[in-house]
Each structure stands twice: as structure tokens, then as C-alpha cells.
Amino acid sequence: MLQDIRAAASSLPHVKIMHVCGTHEQSIVQYGLRSLLPDTVEIIAGPGCPVCITPKYDIDVAVFLAKRGTLVTTFGDMYKVPSTESLSDARSRGADIRIVYSISNAVELAKKNPGREVVHFGIGFETTAPTTALVVQDAPENFSVLCCHRLIPPALLFLLGLGAIDIQGFIDPGHVSAIIGSRPYRAISENYRVPQVVAGFEAEDLVKSVLMVLNQLQEGRAEVENEYTRVVKEEGNVLAQQVMAEVFQVVDADWRALPRIPGSGYELSDKYGDWNARKKFEGLLEDFVYVADEPRGCRCGEVLRGLVYPEECPLFRKVCTPVNPVGPCMVSREGSCSIKYRYSRE
To answer: What is the DSSP letter of 295?
Structure first.
């Protein structure tokens, strides 16, 4: 297959392929796939880490609510993400912030503590959104969600529209595509003439996906192909989509290191407004003051946009490490900086 890639690449100019999945990046770095490709074929990581793109603003809101008496639950990857004050730092200063393995654990905490308000900091792409939607449909009154779910296809369209980076193809995320299917990506290929391949997570999946993108470029095609046929269907998980459509409404949303992207986020619909933490604590949040500064010298934002590699950041490995993360890309196991740190030999 690598010989086929070399043959296909020989008739093409420099090709830049972006993926948007932390698990893809881990496989690429862990197995040294970039080193196996011709110099003219480049795979770059985009905003595929859900923890990394969660806005600093929302982290600060979660901390604010926890400091004012609510019990805030979150996933482990979010716990140490740098902000004005990380969730971990806030807990060390007395805020009641607890790590849960799923939103169902957060609901159980609400049921066991009926006299307390429990807010779940709900993050993630379309992969985790169905679970949030399903749980909210039968959640107790003292439970609410600070909803920070984001949608991948609008982000890809937005990146192409920015024009800051010349992308010749996309490798689309398998987990997200298992939920939404391959159809939502079609507008990207149709509008921008960019080939796309939905890929699995093994090294062989990714190598095959690169070849499929190159073959499309060779043949002058711009389609959405599915390499991950053993899991992903064209229509996706219809039941999950129905649950999400029932509970969520699509909104314009902020991404860390990116401007506001139209139609790229989920918020609880009016029908489930009683479980929307932003509405439930609207009065309390009137006192919230946001400081919109990011760490000086950190290039995590450029890493998320595919403009630089982690090792091009002057803080990487010298100042910014998993023990002392400066930016969010070094915290999550799906963050490009964390992956590069763990698997590189430098």
C-alpha cells in the first residue's frame, strides 16, 4: 500500500491532508506514519480534540458556578485544562468539582443529593452528545448541563473558508461519523472540491485512507468515501440522531483558538430549558466577569488550526509538559502536544 501511495504522489504536487481526530493523531504518531509517507504528502492535525477546543469562557463559567455552591461534574481530561483557574485548582481551593466517567454518574450524584444543584460540564463532539441528550430526557430537577458540545462538519467548512491553510483533503473522524454518517460531509466536498475519507483508527486504516484521498486527487474527484465500512454507515446512527434532534438546538458556537463558527454547537432546546445550566443560573451568572487572556507564548491555537506542529511551539517540552501544561493541547490524551510528548524520541 505504501508503494501505491508513492506512485500516486509522484504525479501530484505537494498534498496537505488534514484529520480532525485525536485518536487518529495518536495512531499516526505512535506508529510513525508520517515518516513512511513521501515528502510531498503531509498529514496535519486540525481541531479534533474536544477538550482542547472547549472555550476558556465555559471553563471559567464552570469554576464560577462551583465556587458558588453548585456541585460540578466533569470528565478527567477537562480537570487540568489551563484557564483563568483550572477545575483542578478550583477544587484545591474548596470548590466541589468531581470527576465522573459518564454523565449518568453525574445524574446519580444529583439523585443522592436532592438538596443540592448538580451541574454537568458536558463537552465533546457528536460522539458524546447522544448520551447527554438521552440522560437529560429523564434527569431530576436539581440536575442541569453546561452544554459545550461541538459539531465537526461546520468546523471543516469554516477552516476551508478561512483560507489560512491550503487543505487538499480531509480524513474524517470515525467515532463522529458512526453517529452522523457520511452524508453531512458532502457539502464540504461539493462546495470546495476537497476529497474526504471517513477512516478507522488502526495504522492500516489511516494508510489506506491517505491512498484513497490521493486516488481521488489523481482522478479529479472530490467525494466522501468511507474506509471505515465495518462501523460507519452512510445514514449513521438514526436513533441517536433522533434523540439529539429532540433535546438539542443547533447554535453558533465559540471554539478555543478559533472565531465563532456558525451552526457548530449544540445547546439544550427550549423544551429542556429547565436542565440548561445557563438558563437555570442566569441570575447568578450576571456577576460573572470573564478575562479573555491566553498564555503568553503558547501556540496551541495554531496547532489546533493545523498551522504548526507541536514541536514548533517554543514552550513545548521546555516549559509546557503534561505535569505543567501551559495550553490545553498538552492536557488531554487526544491533544496533539500531549501525543507528541508521549511518543516522540526527542
So the answer is: -
CA 146/CA 51 separation, integer angstroms: 14
List for the chain the helix, strand, coil content (%; round to 5): 45, 20, 40
Whole-angstrom CA distances from 144 to 95, 120, 252, 275 are: 17, 6, 21, 4
Q: Given the C-alpha cell 500516486, which residue does it identify?
A: 8
Count of H helices and E strands in the chain?
A: 16, 11
Residue with cell 461534574: 73
Q: Select from 150, 120, 149, 114 the least CA-distant residue to 136.
A: 120
pTM given for the model = 0.93
**Residue 62 cell numbers, joined:** 464552570
Three-state secondary structure call for residue 323: coil
Cell numbers of 235, please?
Answer: 445514514
Q: Does residue 294 form part of some domain?
A: no
Please give the C-alpha separations between residue 2 and each of 30, 39, 206, 334, 336, in angstroms, as whole numbers. 17, 13, 11, 26, 24
Q: Which residue has the cell 445557563?
A: 278
**Do 59 and 131 share a structural domain?**
yes
> Which residue range(s) make up the domain with 329?
300-343
In a domain, 295, yes or no: no
The answer on 111 and 23 residing in a single domain is no
Question: pLDDT (tens digit, 9 = 90+) per residue, 38-71?
Answer: 999 999 999 999 999 999 999 999 999 999 999 9
E strand or H helix at 123: strand 118-124
Contact between residue 2 and residue 208 where contact means Cβ atoms under 8 Å apart: no
Q: Determine the average pLDDT of the residues in 205-223.
A: 97
Distance CA 192, CA 185 (A): 11
Final residue before a domain boundary, out of 201, 226, 251:
226
Among 167, 184, 169, 209, CA closest to 27 = 209
